[in-house]
Design goal:
Number of strands: 22
CATH architecture of the largest domain: 3-Layer(aba) Sandwich
Helix content: 40-55%
Distance between the termini: 91 Å
Number of domains: 3
Strand order of the largest sheet: 10-9-8-11-12-13-18-22-21
Oligomer: single chain
CATH superfamily of the largest domain: NAD(P)-binding Rossmann-like Domain
CATH topology of the largest domain: Rossmann fold
Largest sheet: 9 strands, mixed
Number of helices: 22
Shape: elongated
């Protein structure tokens, strides 16, 4: 029905109801009357009819979709009818110096019942007689609060939705066995698996936007025991303001299941260290380097220099940043290798950066085991080149990205990063111009070469997912979180520190694989998990700080700083001078020996 036809129909219905209400009420109170000989009745009828339509237009009663009517629409009807009756009473007093209050009260009652009934009959007809699509997927909503109620209302009203809510799950026992919009609250989260099986649930929607990461992990662990797909609702503010609808449900991501809340940053100190400054990022095309560029750009640096060896990756991040910050941030690119000492000095001299974030490195453990000389060239010599250039040209802050594998290293990659940390700390002791610091964190979810992209490829190929060992554990963080930690370290730097994030409890790799299989819509039985054995250089668990490095106090919530260890600069320079003359095995042994020298020294002293 068009709006014009709908409006005409409603005007006829409402006019009939208004006249019927006032005449019937008068008849109830006075059974003997002649309509056209009663001026009070005629004036009151005209006044009520006109005022009703005026307030109906004012409150937009003729624009509402009554098949979706709820309490809000009922309140609007109450306001329009009450005001129209009040106007009629005022006119009676003005013209006739009298108020027929009993007639008006009965009129108001009939008026409200008939108008409300006519509107809500559309909703009742739709709910009772419009055939629902039985092919919609049976859905369990976790959370019977305001967000869960809004989700169910949208799903019930939207016939095009694919999801059909059949039950709530909520830990509040006071809500159990109640019904919300006809949907029962059946049990708590501990009964989720049983409920899914009993009600043949195909989808679970977690509708608790304020849920902490720990609580979400708990709920998802229950969901993962079932074959139902799990989705989550975004922030309640977005739902209430209309930014989010049913179609905005998102899948639970692996990042949601880290079991801890993201680290909050000191935005004011970061802004002070970046805004209107010249920032240079090495390895700017990599996972961490590119995200550092994205985060830094938000603080409006005067210039951002993207330095990287791979032209395609640098081109991609440059294109992305220019599309967002065109005219706000000056973006320049440098295609160069940190191993090229002359080029590093030339670039630092050319741009005169205030802050350097050094994210260029080789990071793949098995590859570096087979190519230790490349790890030396990139991770040690490359770091030495860019750090010394920063010192010569008086860069204010130099931040090196390191790894938890640098603690008691068992791999070439970890050993070279540990030696690079020593170089950076040594530079801080000899520099009068630059603050040199390092930032150490664990595995980064979704970064190039990490387990998540590998697992996803294996799942897409039908499996199995390969895990090295059932008991292997790692610390994990997201790419944005890792990048923010690097930027925060630069803002907090005094010089010589190794910053470490409190990353909560380590996560079993096999549990990560199981969660990812589940999030991809499969069961572990469908895909399978194969244990391939620990690879050369790998440890069963990683550490973020060695025992001799630990400071007990946090310098910022969840951020620690390690103590300065002994710096074996002479031995590091000897490796730099002789690495190309050693065979692979000898070089590997030299790197591991020096990377663990501090540990061996401590053990010898204790003996």
């Amino acid at each position: 029905m068009s709006y014009r036809n709908r409006l005409g129909l409603l005007l006829i219905i409402d006019s009939t109801i208004v006249l019927m209400a006032i005449y019937v009420s008068h008849f109830f109170l006075n059974t003997e009357f002649v309509i056209f000989s009663m001026p009070v009745l005629l004036v009151s009828s005209v006044a009520l009819l006109v005022s009703h339509h005026v307030f109906a237009l004012w409150f937009k009663l003729y624009r509402k979709a009554w098949e979706y009517a709820s309490i809000g629409e009922l309140v609007t009807i109450f306001k329009a009818i009450t005001l129209s009756v009040i106007i009629t009473a005022i006119i009676q007093i003005i013209i006739f110096q009298d108020l027929y209050i009993r007639t008006l009260l009965v009129t108001w009652t009939l008026h409200f019942l008939l108008i409300g009934g006519s509107r809500f009959s559309w909703r009742i007809y739709r709910d009772l007689f419009v055939k629902r699509d039985d092919t919609r997927q049976r859905t369990l909503v976790v959370g019977a609060g305001s967000a869960g109620t809004m989700v169910v209302r949208q799903l019930l009203q939207n016939r095009a939705a694919d999801l059909n809510p059949v039950a709530f799950i909520d830990d509040d026992e006071k809500k159990h066995r109640l019904e919300i919009m006809g949907v029962p609250v059946v049990a708590g989260v501990d009964k989720l698996e049983e409920t899914v099986n009993e009600l043949d649930i195909q989808n679970v929607v977690i509708a608790i936007p304020s849920l902490s990461k720990v609580e979400l992990n708990k709920i998802f662990s229950e969901c993962s025991k079932t074959k139902a797909k799990t989705k989550i609702l975004p922030m309640i503010e977005d739902l209430m303001t209309g930014k989010v609808s049913v179609s905005n449900f998102r899948d639970v991501e692996v990042e949601d299941l880290l079991g801890r809340e993201p680290v909050k940053l000191d935005m004011s100190s970061i802004a002070e260290s970046i805004t209107n400054r010249v920032i240079l990022v090495t390895g700017a095309g990599g996972s961490i380097g590119s995200e550092i560029c994205r985060q830094v750009s938000k603080f409006n640096p005067a210039k951002l220099v993207l330095l990287g060896h791979g032209e395609n990756s640098i081109y991609n991040i440059e294109l992305e940043l220019r599309s967002i910050y065109q005219g706000q941030v000056t973006i320049e690119t440098e295609i160069a290798d940190v191993q090229d000492r002359h080029k590093m000095f030339a670039i630092i001299d050319k741009h005169q950066p205030d802050v350097v974030y050094h994210a260029a490195a080789h990071k793949h453990v098995p590859l570096m085991e087979r190519n230790p000389e490349e790890a030396v060239k990139n991770n040690i010599i490359g770091t030495k080149n860019i750090a010394e250039a920063a010192n010569v040209f008086k860069v204010q802050t130099f931040v090196m990205v390191s790894t938890d594998k640098a603690v008691n290293p068992t791999s070439v990659m970890g050993a070279t990063k540990r030696l690079a940390e020593m170089l950076v700390q040594h530079m801080d002791t000899v520099s009068d111009n630059t603050r040199f610091v390092a930032v150490r964190f664990g595995n980064v979810l979704g970064s190039r070469g990490s387990v998540i992209p590998l697992f996803k490829k294996q799942i897409q190929a039908g499996g199995p997912v390969t895990v090295t060992h059932p008991d292997m554990v790692r610390y994990f963080m997201t790419i944005p979180e890792a990048s923010r930690l690097v930027i925060q370290a630069g803002a907090l730097a005094q010089g010589g520190e190794i910053f470490v994030l409190d990353m909560g409890e380590p996560v079993k790799i096999v549990d990560l694989a199981k969660n990812l299989i589940k999030l991809s819509g499969y069961s572990v039985d469908d895909i399978g998990i194969k244990f391939s054995g620990i690879r050369p250089g790998e440890k069963m668990f990683e550490e973020l700080l060695g025992k001799d490095e630990v400071h007990d106090e946090q310098i910022w919530p969840k951020i620690y700083v390690g103590k300065t260890a002994t710096l074996y600069i002479g031995e590091i320079n000897e490796i730099i001078d002789t690495y190309y003359m050693l065979n692979i095995e000898d070089l590997r042994n030299r790197l591991l020996s020096l990377g663990n020298k501090e540990v061996a020294k401590k053990e010898a002293i204790s003996v």
